[in-house]
Amino acid sequence: MKRNLDVISAYAIMLGLIILVGFLQSWSIALSILCFCLISAVMTMGANIQWGYAGLINFGIMGYTALGGLAAVLVSVPPVKEAWQVGGLNMIACVFLIALMVFGVRFVLKKYNKSDKRNYGIALVIIIGLILLRLISEPAIESIEAVNPATTGFLGGMGLPILFSWIVGAFFAGALAYIIGKIALGLRADYLAIATLLISEIVIAIIKHEDWLSRGVKNVIGLKRPVPYEIDLQTKEWFINLVAKFNQGTLNLITDALEKEKILKQLVIEGSTVFVKLCFVGLFSVVVIILLIITQKALYSPWGRMMRAIRDNEEAANAMGKNVVKQHLLIFVLGSAIVGIAGAMMVTYDGLFTPGSYRPMRYTFLIWVMVIVGGSGNNFGAVLGGFAVWFLWIEAAPLALFLINLFTSGLAETNTFKIHLINSIPYFRFLMMGIGLLLIMRYRPKGILPEKILNK
Amino acid sequence: MDFLNAIILLLNYIFVPALSYGSQLALGAIFVSLIYGILRFAYFTAGDLMSFGTMFAILFTWYFQSLGISLGILPTALLAIPFAIIITILFTLITDKLVFSYYRTKKSPPVMLAMVSIGTMFVTQAIVRIVIGPFDRRFFDGERFILKANEFKEMTGLNEGLSIKSTQVITLVVTIIVVSILFWFLNKTKTGKSMRAYSDNEDLALLSGIDPKKVVMITWVIAAILATIGGTLYGLDKSFKPFTYFNNMLPIFAAAIVGGIGNPFGAFLGGYVIAFSEILLTYAYKKFFFYILPESLEPDSLIQLLSTDYKFAVSFSILVIVLLFRPAGIFKGKVL
Questions:
Q1: Which of A129, A145, A206, A405 has the fewest CB atoms within 10 Å, i.e. the most exposed one?
Q2: How far apart are CA A74 and CA A167, in angstroms?
Q3: How far apart are CA A435 and CA A441, in angstroms?
């Protein structure tokens, strides 16, 4: 108990802050912050098992998040039958062609030893494959995108409940990580960081511009939620009764029946948004708790000890007969898969998929700030980092406004300098993040909750 | 005649733009490469340092314009660059003193320093956005074109026009001057040689009496100069927007790695490799073939290898290929 005091107190402070937002601003805001905190926590756990357990730098978090989001679209949107009719066959042929290319490359790799001949062989297979792909897919893509472009214009998905996408997203992200890992994991740490950053940009470019797959920058809206809709709730008998029961005190004070009816209606509308967000919080908490249990178990298992050994001294671990390359690849895939889950969760919560909104600042570097601030190598630290940094990221604006007003209180309201500062409030969050990161790295380089090695 | 038309077409749409874009990338890549070689970490603030320098160039330009000072047909920004450089130098030296020097003396792993540079990236980005805002700004004044497409057509009687913007020429001239001074400095002067020695083998360099503080300081000064010049040239040629500058960090890194990170000359060439391949692979060659092929063979489609949406993806794919087959870069890294 005493050993975990720092963890408990840190979490208590965090929850207290969110509750404070509930009282000061509104419960709806507090709960949406909490939802995104939970999503960020999942992403941070993914990055943390790569960086904290194994010391791998993955700056491609944005790419996996977007892939998870794509999974949400592909799972939940009903299939567009017309589009499948006009172009489905060609697209399936393309999938086979890609599989054929992969086997072709593997064949060349097996058949020839490392030489120029092998490289040219691989290049030849890929170039021929790409030209064939282009020839087969081009007419199909054109006709798919011509199917009712205002609302569909893409192949659609499977029409399954969106919750499945959380698993599918993990598989998508894991598969991408496997490919990237095969290519890039041999690189030095900083090269790996740059390579993953650039590859994630390629992933975003593809999702943004392949309209037949994801509708691209036209966005997919109206994804089906796993929880009830506000409009439906507001007409349900049991929900109105529930709200009335909760607010009995205030309602009883009002004598006029008409007035009472009006206020109850208002309360039901407010209550429905809070209820929906509470449902999301419940769903996300389940994911976070399951992941926490699994990652904690893994951290203190023999496998976790081996990962730490590899992280701290790769050569020694190698000499002890541990397959460093294989373990690196494994942990790279696992961590990315967790990030993929978070990506799917986020699209589920938003109910829409906007490829244009994936930017490295928000989805890669901010997550890294969370990992470093929270405490790399400590799962509770990672979750806390996700909570704290996201909270600051959202609440930076009111905080900055308060500080600016405090420091410029001597200036007149019409002072241009003051107006300029107040207009640039959204950017103070970058300043706070940067300074926060620098301070933590300088004075508490292991994060708020440092890694603890238990010798059980 | 058709053949000449085809050549002019390529010159106008590929060669000239790629040359100026490549120069701007090259300036960025050189300083990323220098920092990597001497300070030994990946400097993620690269793009934002460029926007920081450019921001001050813009502010000084506005100031000069308000005073009524101008360079006639040349953009006023050229006059503003030296002042912007001074402020950027101060900025890099202060960040080094406050942030990086601590980790350097502690001999932290390069990864740690790269992370720290992400912190400075956030701060720099915030400063730029707070001071000048996130919007698109054009600060070019003076004569826009040296050669207009119409004039060229009238002059030569060809179907295709060749237009050369003055910013493109300025970019090229300034790049040539700056890069030749830099390489002269690195190869001929004593300080430059000591920097190369320090990059090559730190311990040996220290043993032979090279002052590490001076080497580090000069590196930051060079970085600030190159960042401000490169950024301002890019802003003159296109426009200034903090987000674009942040994104430019990616092709700059690609150029630095393709050229062999830690090797400024490689980075210089790497900039052009990236710029040319981006533009060559995303250009639609329909008109080109229209000129050089006989009528019966003329293509119907655009003959575009990749859509322009994938411009960035091209440079990154090149990077991945280079990393796979020549991890030390095309021009072999670590020989400053």
A1: A405
A2: 12
A3: 10
Interface of A with B in 12-51 (CB under 8 A): none
The parts of chain B modelled with pLDDT lower than 70 are 298-302, 332-336
Chain B residues touching residue A361 (CB < 8 angstroms): 125, 246
Classify strands B145-147 and B164-165 as parallel, antiparallel or unpaired.
Answer: antiparallel
Interface with chain B: mutation pick from A441, A443, A444, highest number of B CBs within 10 Å: A441
Model confidence pLDDT, tens digit, residues A190-224: 788 888 888 898 899 889 888 888 888 888 888 88
What CA–CA distance (Å, rounded) separates B233 from B227? 10
| A1: confidence class by pLDDT, cuts 50, 70, 90 | low
Tokens of A158: 């499977």
The segment with the largest mean pLDDT, out of A142-151, A179-188, A307-316, is: A307-316
Q: Inter-chain contact A434–B125, Cβ cutoff 8 Å?
A: yes
Work out the average pLDDT over A240-253. Answer: 81
Predicted local distance difference test score (pLDDT) of residue A248:
80
CA distance A375 to A309: 18
* Contacts A424 to B, Cβ<8 Å: 129-130, 133
Residues 6+ apart with CB under 8 A from B269: B26, B259, B330, B331
- Residue B336 pLDDT: 41
Complete DSSP assignment for B127-181? HHHHHH-SS-B----S--EEE-HHHHHHHH--SS---EEHHHHHHHHHHHHHHHH
pLDDT value, residue B333 = 47
CB pairs under 8 A between A and B: 119
User: What's the pTM?
Assistant: 0.90
A48-52, A67-71, A260-264, B178-182: range with lowest mean pLDDT: A260-264
Length of chain B: 336
- B43 to chain A: closest CA residue: A190
Mind spelling out the 3-state secondary structure of chain A?
Answer: CCCCHHHHHHHHHHHHHHHHHHHHCCHHHHHHHHHHHHHHHHHHHHHHHHHHHHCCCCCCHHHHHHHHHHHHHHHHCCCCHHHHHHHHHHHHHHHHHHHHHHHHHHHHHHHCCCCHHHHHHHHHHHHHHHHHHHHHHHHHHHHHHHCCCCCCCCCCCCCCCCCHHHHHHHHHHHHHHHHHHHHHCCCCHHHHHHHHHHHHHHHHHHHHHCHHHHCHHHCECCCCCCCCCHHHHHHCHHHHHHHHHHCHHHHHHCCCHHHHHHHHHHHHHHHHHHHHHHHHHHHHHHHHHHHHHHHHHHHCCHHHHHHHHHHHCHHHHHHCCCCHHHHHHHHHHHHHHHHHHHHHHHHHHHCCECHHHCCHHHHHHHHHHHHHHHCCCCHHHHHHHHHHHHHHHHHHHHHHHHHHHHHCCCCCCCCHHHHHHHHCHHHHHHHHHHHHHHHHHHHCCCCCCCCCCCCC
Closest CA to A27 of A384, A386, A267: A267
